[in-house]
User: Which sequence fits this backbone?
């Protein structure tokens, strides 16, 4: 049990963490935030297709550069030469009695003038799939996730030599073709089902915000869980002179062709399928009986050919030098490239970053200077696979690990409730900021509004229950761990820099036009964030984060939340192993008793399930011991900082900030994650091998249990424990420094 | 804790309960069961519409009478004069810009010759609604259940003066218009949504077994939870001379007009609705965005007028006199009336009863006679509201309570797994029978197959988990409690006669044609029970039940399962009160904190929820004390019967059987359930006020908690405890009799 007196001090410390904010400065900052101006920037930047390599993306980079300079920043463009494929030929047709050629284009919709500017727009396409021209029977596979393959196997159907058609959802886009490829499929079609993303969600655009029947979702299918960034230069920057892998050997590029299609197109293919009627949970919203297919009756012809040359990408890097600690950097980024017009994704976040830069520039012109150096980053080529941020982080890795205090990321922004994922050492800092920003719709703080939503949520998921409990008990809302899907990944997972990803969401709708040609200024300003009120609220939130990270002379990190969070994760690992062990034991008994065979409907010719692997007992003792040390050191650190921090000499305070920043790097442990995923060095957070954007915590251990790599459970228990021991040692060092 | 030695004896007793079955007799019985002949009976009886009052229903009664007589039974027809409305005029149209007139008819389908015999067939109609001719805006209300009204209220919409359109499912048909009427609606439309009952379930008829777009579900909407049977003669038989209520005062007849429609018709009405997009869980499978409606834009005109004269119904009652105990009766029933052709419902069960009667008749012709009297009952008018069985049970109430040993019911039968609901005193008897019947598809016993399915089921519901646990531990599969929806109701709920309802199901599909014109011999023999194999298996199951109930000279009842089951129910009541109390406390805190208001999307103009009523603490002590006595007496009874039963003199054994039969009547307590539901006298089982077919156990207490009638919690805790004390006293009396 934690020491009661230390606990009280720790709470006091958490509450005190906003004490050194400068309300007058922040008011002056707020006064500069102009939602109307932000909307204007979006309208300009989203006026033409702005995907990687498009002329308008370049124009936007130059505009950003020019603006930053005007606002008083030292700005430049940094380029990299990355592999980035573009479509040469695409085609998809249904063969047989009712042949159909997929349209693969998104026609303009009335009332959305932007959607009519189709010149130069990318068609239905996903980046980093394989070239191919295949004709084969189609198999419908629900969401195309691992459990779907198990269900398919029990129906006696496989995907070998076939083209898989799977719906978007329940797992990251790229996993669907990757799993299909691993199972021997020759091609993959991914479509947006109207039950998940169309008329069953809301009225369809332009009548409502939801995906219209011709809308499809572009994206990247590079194998993100292996590593992000340029597929040819893993771990190093894609400079002109970098040593590159041959494309055929690049491990993150798929071999099979893949196309994303609309539900208007998909309906023709799915209606043609025969064979087994699917399990009920596989039925989507298309108004047909979904069947598995797999026979020669319904064959498709899929063709994709890409142009594979290197392309130049353009990051805009803007700096405002710190007056007191120029070698302590506060990083702030948002990407700039879209898939088509990119209004919600990414410009709704990019305009927030711009508004902050303008406001901070204005403050700087009046005499105030940040104590630490601010580095604002307008990333290119996030969409194809975090290319801009990854190459930049790899290029500047050493300097960043020496100087960066934290990285604050935004991406698309919505309306509603503050949603923050990030390093748990920043959890109490986030709350302190959130208490000081007013929600535009209700007038209470964005912290209070998020807590209200958590409190009354009827969502039964464990995460929602965790939030509800925290809200009911008046504790900080726990941060979500960082998975992937935006530019924070290199900073937190590869460099060990404390990171945050911040947005508003939960009201309004941007999902229905995600990665489509209807993600326009018109859609965003009508359905997502009318009046750009939440763009303003986000600028006031992330702006405050930047100002406080820049100016507070003591660390903003608090460690009791880290210890509490890790304690939950360790507990989850034990439950995971126990649950898996029980499931295997129950299945073994049921198989031995012939229960699956007896329970099967013999007319559906299903077989017994594949036997699960027996689960041994694991020793989590190294992790438990490390956790114990972390709990003690975290409580001691937070208490010492609260008690003594303010009285410390300036040099000690600066030393503590540097120490806290670098301490996050103790979470990195060579050789990183196994299975070719060594780029992911962080032992506490990673994107899941089979979840993609979704995080896995204590990933080395958790995924070893999930994937039944028993030797890795031991190896990564030791490595993760080592990371936590080193992390705790850093806190003990901090306590010593404060006691000097 | 239960006494360990008694526990062992009780288990031995349970296992011994089939010891006195006569395997040779049962083999000879089995040899008479001929699935092909059963299929032939169905084909004949389902050849024409056979709803109440139709010529073919009368023909079927006469056929049944003739067959029973041929098979050696003493058979007769008993008639009653019941209120039974038939449609004079029905009509439904959508007004406005895209007017549409609902078709309200089911066209014949290719390959199903029966479906072309439409002469005399009932159109879209539900029995016991009100006459009416109304024009009003439409409101879509999901399943039309209480929670749906709460959600609607938060959207700022009400149904007062409107016509409600709700989908079938999640609650009994009749509750939807009843709740609509209580909330001030002027009419109600119920439709089958394809997500629950149509193409999203399976291929549609005739390609597959699921409901085609023109198929609709007829049924009764009389207020069954108040009382079943003739609405004009509650509690007494509807003989020609019975005193009758005026129709306007009959409490089970609705006031508002109601029509059931197909999804082909419903689509036009739902597509016309404007207003709020519904919550996601309200979206069905129609390929449209479901909206709530409620405005003048989408108005409907609904008209229903019925002919309300009394009609004659015909029960066939067949008796085979007991050789040893003619005044101990074993009752066996199945209804005969359908909604159209009635192949699956009810004839698939009726042919089972016929096969048993023929086989038993054949046995009787060879010299064997049942020890007790068998009474076989072919009920008329079950569909409109259990009219045939209820009036007969009311007519013969006194004699039945003196003589009946048990009632065994069947209704529609399917394919797959043995499913039994019933009085828990018969639980170990059911298992003993199920062990001796072979599953047609796998060759193991129907007990073993049901256990295999329970063991491997992935269904997370509490009931499925309870079954899985019992299967894993090798215990008897717990019986489901009896709710309503078939002819057992009068026997178990009103007369206190131990009852069972038995069927096979879980494979094949009859749901898709339920109460439609496609419930035909063609559909049943193709999709539900090809070869009538499970008709045969059911006859062997229920036939064994009848033979053993007739011939076993000791009681087949065992009481440890009753005590275990009641213990679970008492535990559930406590949890229910606690959960409800916590929910209120949490809601009150959230309201006080303004959390609902703050969490609301202000653009959707929702309000705060209606405050829940605070839940006091209740004393369940009377129930707990009664339960304790029941546990002790049940263990003692089962142990004594196992130890001494076989050695008792014949007269004592007969006395024990009579005592056990009558002991079930101790569960009946005047004044029965509150709120005008006094016909339901059983304090252990009842159909739920708001669940209909679904049972409520310890209903007086459970529903008092659910409905927030706190005084009734106390009253019915006392009444239920009294029932259990009397039940236990009966077991103590049995132990004394055995000890004489």
Assistant:
């Amino acid at each position: 049990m934690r020491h009661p007196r230390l606990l009280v001090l720790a709470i006091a410390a958490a509450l005190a963490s906003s004490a050194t904010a400068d309300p007058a400065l922040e008011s002056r900052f707020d006064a500069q935030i102009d939602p109307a101006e932000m909307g204007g920037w979006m309208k300009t930047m989203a006026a033409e297709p702005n995907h990687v390599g498009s002329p308008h993306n370049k124009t936007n980079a130059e505009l950003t550069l020019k603006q930053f300079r005007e606002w008083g920043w030292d700005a430049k463009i940094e380029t990299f030469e990355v592999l980035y494929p573009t479509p040469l030929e695409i085609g998809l047709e249904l063969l047989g009695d009712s042949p159909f050629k997929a349209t693969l284009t998104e026609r303009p919709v009335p009332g959305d003038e932007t959607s009519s500017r189709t010149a130069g727009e990318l068609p239905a396409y996903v980046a980093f799939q394989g070239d191919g021209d295949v004709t084969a029977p189609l198999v419908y596979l629900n969401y195309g996730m691992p459990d779907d393959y198990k269900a398919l196997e029990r129906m006696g159907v496989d995907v070998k030599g076939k083209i898989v058609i799977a719906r978007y959802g329940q797992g990251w886009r790229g996993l669907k073709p990757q799993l299909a490829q691993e199972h021997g499929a020759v091609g993959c079609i991914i479509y947006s089902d109207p039950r998940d993303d169309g008329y069953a969600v809301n009225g369809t655009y332009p009548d409502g915000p939801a995906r219209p029947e011709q809308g499809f979702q572009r994206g990247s299918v590079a194998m993100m869980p292996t590593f992000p960034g340029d597929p040819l230069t893993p771990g190093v920057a894609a400079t002109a002179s970098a040593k590159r892998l041959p494309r055929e050997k690049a491990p993150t590029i798929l071999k099979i062709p893949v196309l994303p299609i609309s539900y208007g197109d998909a309906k023709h293919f799915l209606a043609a399928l025969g064979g087994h009627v699917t399990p009920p949970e596989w039925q989507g919203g298309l108004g047909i009986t979904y069947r598995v297919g797999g026979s020669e009756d319904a064959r498709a012809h899929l063709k994709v050919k890409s142009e594979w040359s290197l392309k130049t990408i353009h990051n805009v890097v803007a700096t405002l030098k710190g007056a007191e600690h120029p070698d302590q950097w506060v990083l702030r980024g948002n990407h700039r490239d879209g898939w088509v017009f990119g209004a919600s994704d990414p410009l709704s976040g990019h305009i927030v970053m711009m508004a902050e830069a303008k406001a901070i520039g204005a403050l700087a012109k009046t005499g105030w200077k940040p104590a630490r150096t601010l580095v604002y980053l307008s990333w290119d080529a996030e969409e194809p696979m975090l290319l801009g941020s990854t190459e930049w982080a790899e290029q500047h890795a050493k300097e960043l690990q020496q100087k960066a205090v934290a990285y604050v990321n935004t991406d698309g922004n919505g309306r509603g409730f503050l949603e923050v994922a990030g390093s748990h050492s920043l959890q109490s800092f986030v709350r302190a900021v959130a208490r000081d920003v007013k929600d535009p719709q209700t007038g209470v703080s964005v912290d209070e509004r998020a807590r209200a939503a958590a409190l009354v949520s009827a969502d039964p998921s464990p995460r929602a229950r965790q939030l509800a409990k925290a809200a009911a008990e008046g504790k900080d809302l726990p941060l979500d761990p960082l998975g992937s899907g935006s530019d924070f990944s290199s900073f937190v997972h590869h460099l060990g820099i404390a990171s945050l990803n911040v947005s508003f969401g939960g009201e309004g709708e941007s999902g229905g036009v995600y990665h489509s040609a209807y993600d326009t200024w018109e859609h965003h300003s009508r359905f997502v964030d009318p009046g750009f009120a939440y763009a303003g609220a986000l600028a006031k939130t992330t702006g405050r984060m930047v100002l406080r990270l820049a100016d507070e002379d003591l660390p903003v990190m608090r460690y009791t939340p880290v210890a509490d969070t890790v304690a939950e994760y360790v507990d989850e690992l034990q439950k995971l192993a126990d649950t898996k062990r029980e499931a295997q034991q129950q299945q073994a008994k049921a198989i031995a008793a012939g229960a699956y065979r007896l329970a099967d409907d013999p007319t559906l010719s299903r077989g017994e399930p594949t036997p699960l692997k027996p689960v041994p007992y694991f020793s989590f003792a190294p992790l438990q011991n490390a956790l114990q040390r972390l709990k003690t050191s975290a409580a001691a650190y937070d208490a010492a900082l609260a008690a003594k921090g303010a009285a410390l000499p300036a040099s000690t305070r600066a030393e503590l900030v540097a120490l806290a920043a670098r301490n996050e790097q103790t979470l990195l442990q060579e050789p990183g994650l196994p299975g070719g995923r060594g780029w992911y060095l962080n032992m506490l957070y990673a994107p899941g091998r089979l979840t993609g954007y979704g995080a896995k915590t204590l990933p080395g251990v958790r995924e070893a249990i999930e994937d039944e790599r028993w030797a890795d459970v031991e190896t990564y228990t030791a490595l993760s424990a080592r990371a936590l021991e080193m992390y705790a040692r850093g806190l003990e060092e901090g306590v010593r420094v404060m006691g000097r």
In short: Chain A has three domains: 21-83+311-551, 86-307, 560-739. The longest strand of chain A covers residues 310-320. Chain A touches chain B through 46 residues (CB under 8 Å).
